[in-house]
């Protein structure tokens, strides 16, 4: 007969469920509060007009463009390096001193506060390389910041692909490169995309690192060399300096909706890709 769970096990399970419910409740409360405060501020003018009078009037169109540009630069640079490093660690090397050093470095970088990345980007990109406060400086700084996340999530996704897939590919005469491109990469793509989505969310919500590298100018950026203000920085300045809490809540609500939209679209595309391969 199957033994009934002990009292201690029931208590532990109850504590775990309680903690999970509390976390979800706090998260839901924060999101609902921001949306209730911010959604009434969203309008066509709010989305299309440039901020005026330090953000008290107008909309946030320039901050939306700045956010998308900085995030795009970071993802375009970080994804090839991160995914390439993950494949190198998972497919081309054996466990040794080199792989341990790379993993230790990635884990160490993941634990560094964002303000440190901002100071590094300010000193190296803005001052040393004389890029100034620009979208490119901010994007490069964010690329370094999200690189550890992409490496670790991509490597874990690659290692979850069964070895039988590789052995079948080799038995059919495929080379190492062909096996990776046609078998391993498509099978691990959902996990890799999840890591990229996490990185996009961090880029969109980052404040300190972007403020020190991309700047906080409200005008519309016309090139990667122009300074720009992202939505997260805009929200921080509006709220911290008590310029306009209504605009701040509207910006925060749009940030939440943007991150939610990115997650939904990415999951739909990955699910369709996975369905075609079945």
Instruction: Report the CATH superfamily of the domain at 64-230.
Output: MetI-like
Strand content: under 5%
**Could you give the order of the helices and strands?**
HHHHHHHHHHH
**What general outline do the C-alpha atoms trace?**
globular
Which second-level CATH architecture of the domain at 64-230 applies?
Orthogonal Bundle
Structural class: mainly alpha
Average pLDDT reading: 88
Please describe the biggest sheet, giving its number of strands, its sense, and whether it closes into a barrel.
none
In the CATH scheme, the class of the domain at 64-230 would be: Mainly Alpha
Output the CATH topology of the domain at 64-230.
MetI-like fold
Strand tally is 0
The helix count comes to 11
Calculate the terminal CA-CA distance, rounded to whole Å. Answer: 41 Å
Gyration radius, in Å? 22 Å
Fraction of residues in helix: over 70%
Name some characteristics of this structure.
single chain, 278 residues, mainly alpha, 0% strand
Helices and strands in order, then pairings?
Blueprint: H1 7-38, H2 44-48, H3 61-92, H4 97-110, H5 114-128, H6 135-159, H7 163-171, H8 176-205, H9 208-211, H10 231-240, H11 245-277
Write up what this structure looks like.
This protein is mainly alpha-helical and 278 residues long. The chain has a domain at 64-230: MetI-like fold (Orthogonal Bundle), CATH 1.10.3720. 75% of the residues lie in helices and 0% in strands. It has 11 helices and no strands. It has helices at 7-38, 44-48, 61-92, 97-110, 114-128, 135-159, 163-171, 176-205, 208-211, 231-240, 245-277. The longest helix is centred in the C-terminal third of the chain and has 33 residues, at 245-277. The radius of gyration is 22 Å and the shape is globular. The two termini are 41 Å apart. The model has no long low-confidence stretch (mean pLDDT 88).
């Amino acid at each position: 007969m199957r033994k009934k769970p002990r009292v201690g096990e029931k208590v532990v399970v109850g504590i775990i469920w309680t903690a999970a419910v509390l976390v979800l409740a706090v998260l839901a409360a924060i999101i609902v509060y921001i949306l209730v405060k911010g959604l009434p501020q969203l309008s066509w003018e709010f989305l299309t007009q440039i901020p005026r009078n330090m953000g008290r009037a107008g909309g946030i169109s320039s901050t939306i463009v700045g956010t998308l540009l900085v995030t795009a630069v970071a993802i375009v640079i970080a994804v090839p390096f991160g995914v390439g490093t993950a494949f190198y660690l998972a497919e081309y090397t054996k466990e040794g001193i080199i792989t341990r050093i790379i993993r230790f470095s990635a884990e160490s970088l993941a634990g560094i506060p964002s303000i440190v990345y901002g100071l590094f980007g300010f000193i190296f990109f803005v001052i040393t390389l004389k890029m100034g406060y620009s979208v490119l400086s901010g994007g490069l700084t964010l690329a370094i910041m999200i690189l550890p996340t992409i490496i670790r999530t991509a490597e874990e996704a690659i290692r979850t692909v069964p070895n039988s897939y590789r052995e079948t590919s080799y038995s059919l005469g495929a080379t190492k490169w062909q096996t990776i491109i046609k078998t391993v990469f498509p099978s691990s793509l959902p996990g890799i995309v999840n890591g990229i989505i996490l990185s996009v969310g961090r880029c969109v919500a980052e404040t300190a690192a972007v403020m020190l590298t991309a700047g906080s100018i409200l005008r519309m950026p016309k090139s990667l060399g122009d300074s720009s203000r992202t939505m997260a920085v805009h929200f921080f300045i509006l709220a911290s300096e008590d310029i306009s809490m209504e605009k701040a809540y509207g910006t925060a609500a749009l940030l939440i909706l943007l991150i939610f939209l990115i997650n939904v679209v990415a999951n739909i595309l990955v699910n369709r890709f996975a369905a075609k391969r079945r």
